[in-house]
């Protein structure tokens, strides 16, 4: 036999029955997005590397060490598997002038790629749901986006997720704060780790959200951006807070929550759980009013978030929330090949009428005994068995047998008019 090939480390197959949980989640998302009037956007999985260098930021973990980049062998272009989708959405918005007639509310779902150390909740291919609002400067859309994420978690039945937020103000406010921050860190050189020393002059804000316990006490005492916010920025933040309050969403301010990129402004936020260990951030986002310009577009305010769907599913499992297990309405039992034309025609009609039916498929030895077929029917979880036996067919009928009512009640139904009794099969 030939050598066996395996999936790339950190990239997972999603198999049945687990894939049904994904579909369940994706259906919930689509339904919710429709009610908030957000429209789907799909952009390519591969983008020019420069999009992320500029749009995600040279000094981020993603660009410094996590990107899958390669050269197109045919024309030498530098390409990257998208590590996140915000830059792609903004690129598309600029390219197609999406905001020419006003703001747009968009969402996406799909795979992202980051070369990280695989562990629970951290993979090299993972799925993100994201929502972005383009072209609206006001705090009401920041609040709306947070309400959207909050409502999704509520409708999924998830509990104990806290909302942390902060404001990064505007560039001038950040510059004043940055100077104070660098001075503070310079006084604490002895505590800074190698990463922090490197970031001191490139991206000092990022030192604030260090995951190194030895630095956290020092970081906690650093000057807070909140103290540098002017009146307009404070008002923006206060409005977001007031709108969340009005809608009954509890939040807290985390002054060390930063996104650390120059194009971020005003609101930043995260939805966090304590039940997934170190990978507890389910959703992170913020306002990125500067990004359009960085990517060559006209100044356009924008705000959005990204959510890791593996983490959401993991938390659903952790909290024991049921996620509808699919079973067909009916399983068709076919004694032999002669029954196939009538059986398959009937099943087509039933499916067209909204019934889900799984047909027994034969093996090399034929279709197997009735007993073994009933066993399969039972195992499929179906509520009914449809028996296309010779007796039945001779009478122009099919036997419908209840598999889950405890007594196996059965009835004959006419083959000529499946649409008339299809509804009785539906669970
Ligand atoms: P972290 O601090 O956990 O690395 P991040 O700041 O890199 O997160 P974002 O870029 O904000 O994450 O992505 C948004 C969300 O996507 C995260 O909150 C998380 O739920 C999810 N996510 C990020 N990286 C991964 C990954 N490698 N595997 C699975 N989910 C991920
Ligand atoms: Mg990361």
Automatic annotation (TrEMBL):
The record's region (Disordered) falls at 405-427
The broad enzyme category this protein falls into is ligase
Query: What is the protein name given in its UniProt record?
Result: Histidine--tRNA ligase
A GO BP annotation:
histidyl-tRNA aminoacylation
Where in or outside the cell is it found? Cytoplasm
Q: Which InterPro entries match?
A: aa-tRNA-synth_II (IPR006195), aa-tRNA-synth_II/BPL/LPL (IPR045864), Anticodon-bd (IPR004154), Anticodon-bd_dom_sf (IPR036621), His-tRNA-ligase (IPR015807), HisRS-like_core (IPR041715), HisRS/HisZ (IPR004516)
Q: What is its EC number?
A: 6.1.1.21
| Keyword Electron transport belongs to the record | no
* Subunit text: Homodimer.
Q: One matching Pfam family, short form?
A: HGTP_anticodon
Where the record annotates domain Aminoacyl-transfer RNA synthetases class-II family profile, the positions are 25-335
Provide the species name. Ramlibacter algicola
């Amino acid at each position: 036999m030939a050598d066996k090939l395996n999936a790339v480390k950190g990239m997972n197959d999603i198999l049945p029955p687990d894939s049904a949980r994904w579909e369940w989640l994706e259906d919930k998302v689509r339904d919710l997005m429709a009610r908030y009037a957000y429209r789907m956007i799909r952009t390519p999985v591969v983008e020019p590397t420069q999009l992320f260098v500029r749009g995600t930021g040279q000094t981020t973990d993603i660009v410094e060490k996590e990107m899958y980049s390669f050269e197109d062998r045919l024309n030498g272009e530098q390409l990257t598997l998208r590590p996140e989708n915000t830059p792609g959405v903004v690129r598309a918005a600029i390219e197609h002038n999406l905001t020419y007639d006003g703001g747009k509310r968009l969402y996406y779902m799909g795979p992202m790629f980051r070369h990280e150390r695989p562990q629970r909740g951290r993979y090299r291919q993972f799925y993100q749901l994201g929502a972005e609002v383009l072209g609206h400067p006001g705090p009401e859309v920041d609040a709306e986006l947070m309400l959207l994420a909050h409502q999704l978690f509520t409708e999924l039945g998830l509990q104990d997720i806290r909302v942390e937020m902060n404001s990064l103000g505007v560039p001038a406010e950040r510059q004043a704060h940055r100077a104070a921050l660098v001075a503070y860190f310079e006084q604490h050189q002895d505590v800074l780790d190698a990463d922090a020393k490197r970031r001191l002059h490139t991206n000092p804000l990022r030192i604030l959200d260090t995951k190194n316990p030895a630095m956290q006490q020092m970081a906690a005492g650093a000057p807070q951006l909140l103290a540098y916010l002017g009146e307009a920025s404070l008002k923006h933040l206060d409005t977001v807070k007031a709108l969340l309050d009005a809608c009954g969403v509890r939040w807290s301010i985390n002054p060390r929550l930063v996104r650390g990129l120059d194009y971020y402004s005003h609101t930043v936020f995260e939805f966090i759980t304590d039940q997934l260990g170190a990978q507890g951030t389910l959703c992170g986002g913020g306002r990125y009013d500067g990004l359009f310009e960085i990517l060559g577009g006209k100044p356009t305010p924008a705000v959005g978030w990204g959510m890791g769907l593996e983490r959401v599913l993991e938390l659903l499992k952790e909290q024991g929330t049921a996620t509808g297990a699919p079973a067909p309405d009916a399983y068709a039992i076919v004694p032999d090949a002669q029954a196939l034309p009538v059986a398959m025609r009937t099943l087509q009609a039933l499916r067209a009428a909204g019934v889900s039916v799984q047909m027994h498929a034969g093996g090399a030895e034929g279709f197997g005994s009735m007993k073994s077929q009933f066993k399969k029917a039972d195992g499929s979880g179906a509520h009914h068995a449809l028996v296309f036996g010779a007796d039945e067919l001779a009478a122009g009928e099919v036997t419908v047998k209840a598999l889950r009512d405890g007594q196996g009640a059965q009835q004959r139904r006419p083959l000529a008019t499946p649409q008339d009794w299809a509804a009785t099969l539906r669970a």
